[in-house]
Amino acid sequence: MGRLRLGEYWINVLVWLVLIFGVAMSSLGDVKAKAKANSVDVHTECGFTRFPKLCVETLSGLGSEPNQYVDIISTLVNKTILETEQLPASNFAKLSYHFITPEAQHARFATGYCLELMRMSVKRLNQALLAIRKSPMKNKHDIQTWLSAALTFHQTCKDTADAFGHGLGGLPTETFIITNQISNKMDYLLQLGSNTLAFTSRMITSSTSSSHNTKINNGTNSRSSGRRLLTATAQQFPKWVSTRDRKLLESNTVNIKANVIVAKDGSGTYRTISQAIQSASGNRFVIYVKAGVYKEKIHINKDGITLIGDGKYSTIISGDDSVGSGASLSGSATFTITGDRFIGRDIGFENNAGPQGHQAVALNIASDHSVLYKCSISGYQDTLYALALRQFYRECDIYGTIDFIFGNAAAVFQNCNLLFRRPRPGASFNAILANGRTDPGQNTGFSIHNSKITTASDFSGVKHSFTSYLGRPWKQYSRAVVMQSTIDDCISGRGWIEWSGAGSSSLKTLYFAEYSNVGGGAGSSSTRVKWPGFHFISREEALQFTVANLIAGNSWLPATGVAFISGLN
Questions:
Q1: Most exposed residue of 228, 373, 474, 544, measured as fewest CB within 10 angstroms of its CB?
Q2: Is 541 exposed, middle or buried (0-12, 13-18, 19+ CB in 10 A)?
């Protein structure tokens, strides 16, 4: 009897083990099935990118099938950082070595500029990677902005290298080889960046409020933009303008508590703006610059600098470098800003090279969350280089001839005056906007809102002797919108002009639009260009290019002073 009971005991134990093992295997099978259901076919997903072959090759290193877009995006960003950091600085050093004559100063500067662009790119890629790991959907606008900027910096380096290879005759053969190596490397980084942006866009469009916004949507192809359209015309600032910064923008000059004062006559802390910037420290450093013309070449790479003058035509920072005199494009800039959260108020930036100087930049900005308020920006060709990141211009006067607002920032120009100047003899046309968007995933573009497009005094009398346009497509996916603005009759009925030598393909991929403009140059559907990429848009479409949506997302804080239109009039 005891043996029987013992046998029954072991039989029961065996039965339970079998049952437990079966349940465990079933659960494991469910987990695997669920994981497979949530995983993604890399080949299918890469088919949505512009460079699917590279996409598959890059993602094959994951080792397992990803089940979230954040896995893919993180892998691609990490790969781009690694490849950017490995860019051989020795190539730039060798390139610089060949340019030893005074006439080639611009070439040495440009090689250093390319290295600076790579450092700027890595900074933005690391910011994006951190934001992806923390909360990808909460930070989606930041992520897309920083990835777009990295792509812009790589493209700018490529343009610089290509200019060496094709634009400077008589260089040693080795120099051409090096510039081609750099250009090819940039092509590779541009493809990586494009694929990363493609997945970022898919993550945003496939998200829903109930899915925690990160899982891959294999069954649908959502077209939701993830944006909340703000239609209010409240007097507001973007959320990235702090309470203290708002007070700086609102206060009278006499009430501003500056950290340092600049005065040419010695009555301030410093005599030059450069000295004041060198002394800057802390989160927000305020420099008050008294009236006068300051002939300085300035580069700010510090965050949180505020520059306040006595008026846009009273405090002037002036230079005269130009491509025509031997400077590189970026090197021609009178004032360059790469530090974030720059604020400029009641101050002027000018390049006095004149129309004969050809490209001559007055202001070059790659500053995220930058504000220019009541400033003047004056030059001829390529006056304002709005290179990258989120920028806002309010009540500014901007002067120029050809492409006098160019770059690939997400920039809104609100309540501004855009003024054509008289071009050099023999010039065939004038144009305001030349946007450099190179990829459909970039959330960049120029928006002219509630502004006035007109002529400066030197051009008014002869404005009909030249043809003037709103803009032209600098790059393949160029994007620019003019809305609720007054347009002088100096603007051609066509409105826009092709980029010479670019072919017709960009006329399909660009996005140029107008909405609710008035004035003799406002034009109509019968006179404007008939390009596939040009549109007269609806109010709903125009809302996408307001301050609320183009440069600061869907969150705004109440204002405390300066008028600020978040939506449309």
A1: 228
A2: middle
